[in-house]
Q: What sequence folds into this?
């Protein structure tokens, strides 16, 4: 395995090699202190793992990782963060698979690389590939959602711009108005036009609603109730954002929204349906893993892909503490009336928060039913 480290700290390489030797890992490592040297190395040989500081002398780590990705899309890409850099890092989700502490700690690097490798093995399993390969046409990427996301990145975007986009799809427009007039958002005031709905919902909620509308408009196999599935997804999304909070709340909200997307695919295993006697849902890859594979094909950020893949078993995620996957697991379980993995919550020191989270979920469900 070849590991390329881009760091302005000259001691990083020596310390890493010493720890790798203690671990008995035969990795080939090389350090570059600037972007030009790093790219020259990346052009010269295959890169298995690329590690870069978010900011270094004369280079932008996220941009550098994006360039390395263009040459070595298979490489694991890790970004080193100092305390306080997390908000800036949220803009780097497309170029980095993982965030690690700066200065680099060899133990964290080993854990991160093994986690990425495990996820790749999961999403590249022969069973999963065969199941997805049997599908004639995968659900397409959500077009309106991607257009909306691009529009929101522009400083010139106005509510009128967004409402014009939404109005292009009458089905989505109807769902936006329906949600805006639900008890949770309406405040007793009826909204009848898309522009007012856009303002009331807010950009991030609007983006998630459009994503849900497009994703769950796909043909769903079996006896799955599409409306109930979408409603569960939207409520889980709202709850997950509250559970995690901060700069990662939008990641958690989107991952929770998409946690059940694998159910759109035939030939997947859905334990609840199997327990209900639907024998065709008892074999094949788990729907969560299939959903994560689909999201990977759509190009969604790796934290969302990983959270979807492990939401039914949050302990499988090797991310330290309670992050996106944990929030998705708890939110989806509480909204669906399923068991929460209390051993997992105990392991991350948050078991005592469960009663308060249950109340949050109950209040959310009551508001929706009102």
A:
């Amino acid at each position: 395995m070849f590991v390329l480290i881009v760091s302005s700290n000259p001691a990083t390489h020596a310390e890493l090699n010493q720890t790798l030797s203690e671990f008995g890992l035969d990795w080939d490592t090389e350090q570059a202190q600037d972007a030009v040297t790093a790219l020259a190395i990346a052009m010269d040989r295959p890169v298995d793992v690329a590690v870069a500081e978010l900011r270094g002398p004369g280079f932008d780590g996220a941009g550098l990782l994006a360039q390395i990705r263009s040459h070595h899309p298979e490489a694991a890409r890790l970004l080193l963060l100092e305390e306080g850099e997390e908000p800036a890092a949220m803009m780097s989700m497309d170029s980095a698979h993982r965030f690690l502490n700066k200065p680099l700690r060899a133990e964290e690097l080993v854990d991160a690389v093994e986690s990425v490798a495990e996820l790749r093995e999961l999403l590249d399993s022969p069973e999963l590939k065969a199941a997805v390969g049997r599908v004639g046409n995968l659900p397409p990427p959500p077009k309106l959602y991607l257009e909306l996301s691009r529009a929101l990145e522009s400083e010139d975007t106005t509510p009128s711009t967004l409402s014009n986009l939404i109005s292009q799809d009458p089905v989505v427009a109807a769902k936006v108005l329906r949600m805006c007039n639900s008890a949770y958002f309406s405040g007793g005031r009826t909204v009848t036009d898309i522009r007012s709905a856009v303002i009331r919902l807010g950009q991030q909620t609007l983006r998630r609603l459009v994503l849900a509308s497009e994703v769950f408009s796909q043909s769903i196999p079996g006896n799955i109730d599409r409306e109930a599935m979408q409603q569960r997804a939207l409520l889980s999304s709202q709850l997950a954002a509250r559970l995690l909070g901060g700069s990662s709340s939008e990641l958690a909200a989107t991952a929770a929204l998409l946690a059940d997307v694998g159910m759109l695919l035939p030939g997947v295993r859905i334990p609840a349906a199997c327990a209900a006697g639907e024998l065709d849902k008892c074999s094949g890859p788990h729907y969560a893993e299939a959903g994560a594979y689909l999201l990977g094909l759509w190009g969604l950020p790796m934290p969302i892909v990983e959270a979807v893949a492990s939401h039914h078993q949050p302990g499988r995620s090797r991310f330290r503490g309670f992050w996106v996957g944990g929030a998705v697991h708890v939110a989806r379980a509480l909204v669906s009336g399923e068991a929460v993995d209390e051993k997992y919550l105990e392991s991350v020191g948050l078991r005592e928060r469960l009663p308060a989270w249950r109340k949050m979920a109950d209040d959310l469900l009551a508001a929706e039913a009102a």
